[in-house]
Design goal:
Number of domains: 2
CATH topology of the largest domain: Rossmann fold
Distance between the termini: 17 Å
Oligomer: single chain
Low-confidence stretches: 1-13
Strand content: 15-25%
CATH class of the largest domain: Alpha Beta
Number of strands: 13
Radius of gyration: 18 Å
Order of helices and strands: EHEHEEEHEEHHEHEEHEHEHEH
Helix content: 25-40%
Number of helices: 10
Shape: globular
CATH superfamily of the largest domain: HAD superfamily/HAD-like
């Protein structure tokens, strides 16, 4: 376990009232494709203490059920598509769609690169323009946590007719830069090396977190966040305490206040105990 700065937020001035969790590589293991028992125990302890727990993921709304079905704990709210879609089970709903002109630019770019698959995420569905081996291998890496793949090339061609939360394109870094340079309000975040999530540039996980913070009256110092991928960097920087998993990439670790153990080595539990949020 490594602490990047012993003086940085080793104790909080305000008690933690909410904890936001990424899913893949944070709550669930890429090795076992399940949620460690220690993590389940930690989530239950947070609930017993009255601390709100939230999912904060790049997954779209229709891709969360496969994870929630594994959870023996009820979350207080969900931040999906990297901050663009926020909801709970009690009627709270706020969302931010991509600019339709930007969606059109991305669709046109993909039409000129017919070898590149992309996932189009709407409020009630998510679908691909087509599938190839790169996509199949990426989905295979998620194991039992992978949602079903729906292909709807015709709807993808007419994506500007629908409200789009996110488009995930299976492109490399240079292609990602090219797409973003053509758009007006788009940024790209990655949690898997095979694809980039294209979202509004003024969106992101912190924007989603702030929606729930405003709803419940939390301030930044009362919020903790856990993540492991590139799309978690701004979330960890924004939270009062940002914790990177031991299996996180180096850039994520550098952005965090604390680096805990890996998801498979009780990382969530150990960090919550370290900061005194819960007892063992």
């Amino acid at each position: 376990m490594t602490h990047y700065d012993d003086a940085m937020k080793s104790a909080t001035s305000s008690p933690i009232k909410a904890v936001f969790f990424d899913i893949d590589g944070t709550l669930t293991s890429f090795a076992t494709h399940s949620i460690p028992q220690s993590t389940i125990h930690a989530l239950k302890k947070l609930k017993e203490l009255g601390i709100k727990i939230f999912i904060c993921s790049g997954r779209g709304p229709s891709y969360m059920d496969v994870i929630l079905d594994m959870m023996p704990v009820e979350f207080d709210g969900f931040v999906g598509t990297n901050g663009q879609y926020c909801f709970d089970n009690h009627g709270f709903l706020e969302r931010q769609y991509m600019d339709r002109e930007d969606v059109g630019i991305i669709v046109d770019w993909l039409a000129k690169h017919p070898e590149i698959p992309a996932n189009f995420v709407e409020e009630d569905r998510a679908y691909f323009n087509f599938i190839n081996d790169i996509l199949r291998n990426a989905w295979k890496s998620l194991g039992g946590t992978a949602p079903k793949v729906l292909v709807d090339g015709n709807r993808a061609q007419h994506a500007t007719d629908h409200d789009m939360l996110q488009i995930s394109a299976y492109v490399n870094d240079e292609q990602q830069k090219e797409i973003i340079s053509l758009c007006h309000n788009v940024s790209g975040v990655r949690w898997h090396p095979s694809f980039v999530d294209l979202i509004p540039a003024d969106g992101g996980k912190p924007a989603g977190m702030q929606r729930f913070m405003k709803h419940y009256g939390f301030d930044q110092s009362q919020v903790m966040a856990f993540g492991d991928g590139g799309n978690d960097i701004t979330m960890l920087q924004f939270a009062g305490i940002g914790v990177a998993m031991g299996n996180a990439t180096d850039d994520v670790k550098s952005a965090a206040d604390w680096v805990t153990d890996s998801v498979d080595d009780d990382g969530v539990m150990n960090a919550l105990v370290h900061f005194g949020v819960i007892s063992q």
